[in-house]
Amino acid sequence: MVRSYIVGGHKFSVSMPENSVLWNGMDNYRPFVSDMIDTDLCDKDISDSIFVLDIDLCSNGKDIIDNSSRMAEFDDETAYISLMSGPEKQRVFIIALNSGLKEFGGLLVVGNGINKCKLYMGACTNYGHGLFVINNSLMLLYALFTSVRNTMLIHASVVVADNLGYAFLGKSGTGKSTHTRLWLQNIPGTWLLNDDNPVVRVDDNGNPIIYGSPWSGKTPCYKNEGVRLKAVVRLSQAPQNAIRKLSGISAYAALAPSASSMKWEKKMADGLHRTLTRIIDIVGIYHLECLPDAAASVLCHDTVK
């Protein structure tokens, strides 16, 4: 079975056996479905997809791993990813929840210059871990293939007020979701667009649009909607509430760490740099030092609106 999805205006496709129980765990993608066809991948025209992920549930791709050379390894609170150069110079990733589960991870292979990708999941014997691997593979591919399309996937919590989007950034634990909740409680008419990984895209008319996505962390908020991005606010905890607008290098430095990127991929890094530069030219970027109280949300709203 092949299912296609549109996220942030970009279409991608996923191929997996129709009888796989993993489809049942992908309800977060349902609002973004473009079409579903009960056919083999080779029978479907996917030329309009920015990438196609073909999922192999049987093979673990060990022969590819054995013939690949390791380039980098990342292990944090979100995922374990090992980057390798494949036997045909493909980009090869081992993806798992953490390093302790890497032997049960998925193997993602991205070919050179083509949009067809393969995910080998024969080692993923746990249902929940399998869904984690699929989600993170799709996020990685989306960030990779949209980086040259004036688009970036960012780690942020986003609310909408007066039909405008406001994105809150910060290191894990700084209170992004808390500040979002304070807006929802204290700013009339505010609603949540995404709580973890929204998409920002500069459209053909030069407008910055922020979209919901299938990836929203622990908060199940999967809205297939987009609004104009009005402001981006980087949060930090403080004993008082204070906000200031940033510009130039300071604005770039506030936004860049929250953008999904692979710095070793020059084409992706260059594309992301161009998008970041355009965003800080047309969107207000702020730094809010704050307490977790209602006054912080009111101060922020009244300043950035």
User: What's the tally of helices?
Assistant: 6
Question: What is the H/E order?
Answer: EEEEHEEEEEHEEEHEEEEEHHEH
Strand content: 25-35%
Q: Quick one: how many beta strands?
A: 18
Mean pLDDT comes to 92
What structural category do the secondary elements indicate? alpha+beta
Total separate domains? 2
CATH architectural type of the largest domain? 3-Layer(aba) Sandwich
Provide the low-confidence segments as ranges. none
The radius of gyration over CA amounts to: 20 Å
Kindly report the CATH topology of the largest domain.
Answer: Rossmann fold
Distance between the termini: 45 Å
The biggest sheet, with number of strands, parallel, antiparallel or mixed sense and barrel status, is: 9 strands, mixed
Helix content: 10-25%
User: What best-fitting shape do the alpha-carbon axes yield?
Assistant: globular
What is the CATH level 1 assignment of the largest domain? Alpha Beta
Biggest sheet strand line-up: 3-1-2-4-9-8-7-6-5
